[in-house]
């Protein structure tokens, strides 16, 4: 059984470390890997807004930097601790790292990635086009 409260608290804790001097909008993300590792990430802004790093990007980078695997459970919060939805770009990133079965805590409850990103584009689509 996943302790969603503890996972959300890890996201809140890391959101406090976000670097958001331009927007003031802090974001924290926390997830569990298939081997039980806790992974976290926070947004890191840049004066050139387009190169800002999302919290989800940092989290997925930590997944791969610490041994790889797949995400199984994920939550994202804003600076006040409210659960928020990842943007479309980050939903794609999460799909790649966790697939259809990844469970996501959303403002509407726990949903699987295939509910959050229906009809997602993935590696199998690339394989089909190569034929």
UniProtKB/TrEMBL annotation:
Protein's UniProt keywords contain Calcium: no
Domain of life: Bacteria
Ranges of residues in domain CMP/dCMP-type deaminase: 2-124
Record's keyword terms, sorted: Hydrolase, Metal-binding, Zinc
Cofactor section: Zn(2+)
SUPFAM superfamilies in UniProt: Cytidine deaminase-like
Family: Belongs to the cytidine and deoxycytidylate deaminase family.
Biological function: This enzyme scavenges exogenous and endogenous cytidine and 2'-deoxycytidine for UMP synthesis.
Protein name, UniProt field: Cytidine deaminase
Taxonomic lineage from the root: Bacteria, Bacillati, Actinomycetota, Actinomycetes, Propionibacteriales
